[in-house]
Structures are given as C-alpha cells and as structure tokens.
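ok so i was messing around last nite and threw this chain in just to see what happens. nothing serious, just curious
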Amino acid sequence: MRVIRVGTRKSQLARIQTDSVVATLKASYPGLQFEIIAMSTTGDKILDTALSKIGEKSLFTKELEHALEKNEVDLVVHSLKDLPTVLPPGFTIGAICKRENPHDAVVFHPKFVGKTLETLPEKSVVGTSSLRRAAQLQRKFPHLEFRSIRGNLNTRLRKLDEQQEFSAIILATAGLQRMGWHNRVGQ
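result:
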C-alpha cells in the first residue's frame, strides 16, 4: 500500500486540522495510507517577539516548504492565513477546505467573565498577535491597551488564565471551535 507523508506543524490545532484533511483524503482514496509528520517552525520557536518585529517571511511555513523540497513529505496541511502571498517556485495550493467561522473572538480573564470590551476598565490590556486586530480595536476602544501575545492556543489561554498581564485576548473563533473550546468565547 502506498504511503503519503503529510507534513504539518506540531501544535494541537494544526494536528486537528491535519487529521481532518487526512480523514477526507482516506475517504476519497481508501487504497492509500497516510503518515503524519509533525514539525516545529520558526514561528513556533520564537515566542518572545511580536511577529511583526521578527522581520522574516514564511515564519510558519519555511520548515514545511524545506521538507517538501527535500521529498521528506509529499504534501503539507496549513492554515491559509499563514501562507506567504507568493509561493516558492514549483509549489501550488492543491486544495482549500471549506472555510470555518471567519470571526474573531474575545476570551476574557476569569475575573472579567461577563464583561465586554466596552465595559473593561480603563487601561485594561488586551492581547493579540495581529497588528490588524490591534489597530482596528484600538480605534474602536481607545480606553484599552493592546499588546502582543504569542504562542499556540493552549499557551495563550494559559497566559491569560494564570498571569495577571491580560484582561482579555483576541483569537480566531475557528481555532477555538476546532479545539472544542466554544465556551471560552466571551464576545
């Protein structure tokens, strides 16, 4: 039986996405076997610097691209939002899965559950890894401060819950839903 090697990031969310894609492929190609090869990327390793300040392209895809070039994997599964706008020569996007919920979600520190961004106290700190989200929200909520927060979903939620630095964090609703954490969405 032919084995198709599927590259992905090591994060739990990336694995959930990849498992879903592999399940779809298995249903369509029952004569093939799939092996998932998980790896860490530069973006996964540098967690103490805002993405905008790292100054490198393909932070979450470079290692996956190298594995494809070296024929260590046959295909990779990745979030479209993290792909570079121009793919390396010879690469192509083979498929795009149905889009999940495209909205952002606010997850509040346990002491602020039941609040909204409008009702958070003056100078409350809201974490996000997105300059776009921070700029949009700063304009609408000038009473709040916005700071970079990095890490996978598990890490960001742990930082929110266990530290006193953030009153809330902004995350992709789709990621929270994939992880089964619908109940964490506060707004």
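not much to say yet. Confidence is low (pLDDT under 50) at residues 54-59.
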